Amino acid sequence: MISKLVIENVKHRPMRSMLSILLIGVPVTLILTLVGLSQGIIEESAKRSRGVGADIIVRAPGTSMLSFSGAPLPEELVPMLAKWPHVKLATGTMNHGAGGLLEIVTGIDVDAFNKMSGGFTFLEGHTFERPDDIVIDQYYARQRKVHAGDTTELLNRPWHVAGVVAPGKLSRIFLPIKILQDLTANRNRISQVYLKVDDPKNIPLVVSSLKSKLGDEYPIMPMEQLISLTSVDNVPGLRPFINVIVGIAVIIAFAVVCLSMYMAVLQRTREIGILKSLGASKWFILQIILAEALFLGFGGTALGILLSFATRALLAVFVPASLPQAIVPEWWPIAGLIAVGAALLGGLYPGLTAARQDPIEALAYE
Amino acid sequence: MNKSIISIQDLRKVYHVGKVDIEALRGVDLEVPAGQFLSIVGPSGSGKSTLFHIIGGLTPPTSGTVRVADQDLAALTDSGRTNLRKKSVGFVFQKFNLLPNLTAADNIAVAKHISGTANGNDQEFEKVLELLGISRRLNHKPSSLSGGEQQRVAIARAIVNRPAILLADEPTGNLDTENSQAVLTLLRDLNNRLGQTILMITHNPEAATFGDRTVHMRDGRVSV
Questions:
Q1: What per-residue confidence (pLDDT) applies to A264?
Q2: B85-102 pLDDT tens trace
Q3: Most CB contacts within 10 A, which of A339, B5, B19, B32?
Q4: What three-state secondary structure class fits A71?
């Protein structure tokens, strides 16, 4: 009977119910989009790291494994490491921030990189031929709305898009390493060296021998370890940022339900009086209000989840390369608990007000 | 003579409105035997509704003795009064007071649910619904029922749990003459057939004649 009362109440004022559900849904979407973005960016970056085909990465002392720019290593390191026992292939690459949102240009030694990674899959065009040629991946091409043969602006100069490749290999924007080094005044300097060993079993051996030779201050690690380090907790400030957004979402959901249910209680003063005249206890009245808050909380959660698919679709249209959003179903119950918890809390005060109402005054309410 | 189902001695009720005390009842004495249909008439402000609210457990008395269906109302807590409303009294109001979102059937079902007697078919009550003439209108919401039909649904809701006392506060106040007659006849019928004790407040002396006995109220007191 309580569920019938709640459903009829919700149906009786559809506009108020829909608005409440929408307003609870928005913070749920906010949480899911943010978590989805963090996860999406990280998963994408891990996928691209794997796509290099390397077993070990060597970076310069003092650099973070997750930093994106700078070229502190001498290029002579590459031939030296290529001759290291058990190392089959070595290639140096250089990263340079292109200024846009998470836009990084990567300079590669095309032949060595192709050997290590198995080569690009060209969806359009071909590899570097002209000095102003650039190769980009499919997502970046979509974001920039360019195709092979078009011209695009990057690093304050125009580039000819030579080819568009399938995503998933190291970066989204590629230049021959020499060109990027010259352009950024980093001649003969690189950001990291990728190594492929003859047998995966030898990875620990190579890492330890490199560390003993180059020094412990060099961040040298197996690629799998680098990929496992790529998580929300290893991106500085990301976890507190997510927590702040979740906190804001809780406050919004709480305030929305509190206001909505308070309004509902005022509108239904007379009905509450009627129920009390029939012998309804305070707990019965509180249950009706809380059940409605619960309904709005669940409705808001469902809508929020649906809207997170919409934000993903929107981001995929406008910024597919920079902001890949994952759908993270593990967070659905968490976002749901937050929304429902805030809704129940928001329904509590109006519910108690309703339960305490004087039946005679309530019955006289017009 | 039946045993008194309502027994009131020197009942007083004072309302505090801001810093002003309003004495709504100033020593009411009243005995109502079980099975009686009592009409209470009196001008506005004479204390009729306050008397009803106290007998119905909507508000506690300030002083005096009130026994309703063997319960001492002065000794009842808030939850005790809630129980009284649930089990022992049924209300019929001037403005019908049906829940607007629910059908007539659900309005009656809510009362059954609250009293904890929701399960099972009640053939006897089916007959009451026939008597009330609303069997075919049960699936309609109040907004699509006439005033007379709404009041009949309200009466059905008030007696569905077999209360010891039915309290009707101006039950014909919002009805035209024809519907008023029908509702009063119904109340008379319920009293005759089921032995339902009924207390009815009315302004209308003609309506009062439907009862077995009429008492008058003036200035917070009962005069026979």
A1: 78
A2: 998 999 999 999 999 989
A3: A339
A4: coil
Å between B1 CA and nearest CA of chain A: 30
Show the domains of chain B with their CATH numbers: 35-60+78-223 (3.40.50.300)
C-alpha to C-alpha distance for A64 and A229, rounded to whole angstroms? 11
B116 touches chain A (CB under 8 A): no
A40: which residues sit within 8 A by CB, 6+ positions away? Answer: A323, A324, A325, A326
Q: Using an 8 Å CB-CB cutoff, list chain B residues near A270.
A: 97
3-state secondary structure of B133: coil
DSSP strand pairing (A157-165 vs A122-125): antiparallel
Closest residue, chain A, to B141 (C-alpha)? A8
- Assess A357–B contact: CB distance below 8 Å, yes or no: no
Residue range A93-135, pLDDT digits in tens: 998 887 766 688 999 999 999 999 999 999 999 999 999 999 9
Confidence of residue A339 (pLDDT cuts 50, 70, 90): confident
- In whole angstroms, what is the distance from residue A256 CA to residue B189 CA? 51
Per-residue pLDDT, A66: 57
CA distance A362 to B202: 22
Residue B160: name the closest of B120, B202, B201, B200 by CA. Answer: B120
Contact A4 B106 (CB under 8 A): yes
Q: Which residues of chain B have pLDDT under 70?
A: 1-2, 118-121, 224
CB count, 10 Å around CB of B223?
A: 9
Cβ <8 Å between A9 and B101: yes
Sign of CA dihedral A184, A156, A323, A30: positive
Per-residue model confidence (pLDDT) at position A69 = 65
What does the alpha-carbon distance between residue A245 and residue A260 come to, in Å, rounded to a whole number?
Answer: 22
Per-residue pLDDT tens digits for A165-193: 999 898 899 999 999 999 988 889 999 99
Residue A217 pLDDT more than 90? Answer: no
Q: Name, in order, each residue with C-beta under 8 angstroms of A103's C-beta and a sequence gap of 6 or more.
A: A97, A172, A173, A321, A322
Average pLDDT of chain A, as a whole number: 88
Q: Using an 8 Å CB-CB cutoff, list chain B residues near A274.
A: 97-99
Q: How far is CA B216 from CA B27, B57, B213, in A?
A: 14, 22, 10
Question: Is A280 in contact with B83 (Cβ distance < 8 A)?
Answer: no
Cβ within 8 Å of A, B 93-112: 93, 97-102, 106, 109-111
User: Which among A2, A4, A5, A277 is the top mutation candidate for probing chain B, defined by the most B β-carbons within 10 Å of its own β-carbon?
Assistant: A277
Residue of B78, B102, B103, B153 to mutate when probing chain A, most A C-beta within 10 A? B102
Decide if B82 and A360 are in contact by the 8 Å CB cutoff: no
C-alpha to C-alpha distance for A87 and A83, rounded to whole angstroms:
7
State residue A73 phi and psi, 5-degree precision. Answer: -95, 145
Q: What is the mean pLDDT of residues A275-299?
A: 91
Taking an 8 Å cut-off on Cβ atoms, the answer to whether B110 and A363 are in contact is no
**Contacting residues of A for B114, CB less than 8 Å apart:** 275, 278-280, 284
Strands (E) across A62-172 are located at 73-74, 87-97, 104-108, 122-125, 133-137, 151-154, 157-165
If 0-12 CB within 10 Å is exposed, 13-18 middle and 19+ buried, where does residue B4 land? Answer: middle
